[in-house]
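Repro:
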Amino acid sequence: MSAVLQSTPDAQHDAQTEGIQLTLEAPGQSQLLTPAALAFLRDLHQRFEPRRQALLQARATRQASFDAGVSPDFRADTAAIRAADWKVAPIPAALQDRRVEITGPVDPKMVINALNSGANVYMADFEDSTSPTWANLIEGQHALRKAVAGTLDWTVLDESRPDGSKHYTLKPEAERAVLCVRPRGWHLDEKHVLVDGNRISASLFDAGLFAFHNAATLAAKDRGPYLYLPKLQSMEEAALWEVSLAHIETALGLAHGQIKVTVLIETLPAAFEMDEILHALRARIVGLNCGRWDYIFSYIKTFRAHHDKVLPERAQVSMTQPFLKAYSELLIRTCHRRGAHAMGGMAAQIPISGDAEANDAAMARVRADKFREVTAGHDGTWVAHPALIPLAREIFDARMPEAHQQHVLRDDVKVTRDDLIKPPLGTITRAGFENNVEVCVRYLAAWLDGSGCVPIHWLMEDAATAEIARTQLWQWIHYADDGREPLSLDDETPVDSALLDRALISLPGKLQDRLRLPGASRINEAIGMLDRLTHAETLAEFLTLPAYERLD
């Protein structure tokens, strides 16, 4: 249903809403998308959309050079930035200690549980763990607004309780995690808000609307606003965030640098521009984060045409692999040299109920991963499930007695271009191939049904992990497009379209006993999408771009 803002006798209202169209209605949206808020968003679009489009075109041009055989490298034109001695602005007190951070979507129940979880920071995620239906986005903005005000609560049906329901409320503010918000990346549009007939940037919609309603309250509490910035590929993309946020600060009467940011280094090109990204945002950046899953996805996508850069199955691509170890240690060295936090990556495991042996093995993997991070010099880490917070905190507390460990400079780390791009050795097993198919289909079906964070085989899957599965399938199958012999499974079965077709055909039967899975009604739709995307001649940049057109 279209909801075009109609003219009114109020001339000021007309001026504020001129040229803005909302293409769908959701409960409560009028309380968020007031005429003043819409005028604010329109201004952001008109000021920064041309530059965003130019940067997206620059991405496409750069990828074309990678497809032609070029490899990413450290930039010659920014060598002076890397060589000079400079620091980022001081880190505010609320972000000094970030040893354990929890991430998750922005539905009210999740917001309450995450803020109450005992983590130092909660990253409220509008990106990879939220399916961006219009209803989800509006509900999420409402939930965060109420959380900032301290009034958020939530009641759900619970037949196990005497009154038939369970009521969730926030703990006192001093006991809550610090709130950081991750808007969607520069590559995404918000199709439900049109300015002069064109879609607004999803990044500016998410960050702008959150700041419009919450910045003054958060600034008064010395709590931000704080943002996590995803999917950057260059210092120029960081510079666009800088000018956008500086304008937001001016428009909302905030001091310059009031909005603090952490940047996820989750694309391969960005790994070569860590210093430059810190420099572009030096008035407000407080750290970089090893976004490991998206980084692996980006590696595959960057080298999609390079036959010597094919990764083994996902389970074999751990952070102990040399190219990922080099990336994480370079991030630590770079951040600590510049006075910024070096945040570790996500533990995707979730507790396994009913199988103590399997649960112990999973927790041992988490423990080893967090031990690796803290001993390498990371200042904190991510978990996807509240039950992992005590484990992660125990490990960091034992080896990081201060709020952070920026004194660990890692001057021993010497990383070259080849260190960052050399692929690991490994295999593709039948189980690994079929797991990629299942994860991608089940996650996509759930995403289309409105769920962006899905537990599958005791791992919390989001868009990043589904993208690894999809791009690996595409790269493996298209390996033989130029007449090469196809790749093989470890049992010598060729990895080709026939193998994929058999896996897709058999999948519904395998999932028949799981009709209550998230998105079960959209499994066939997801299979069709994966079939088309994987057989396509060109690898789609993001799974979520064509899938978004199917969302309300």
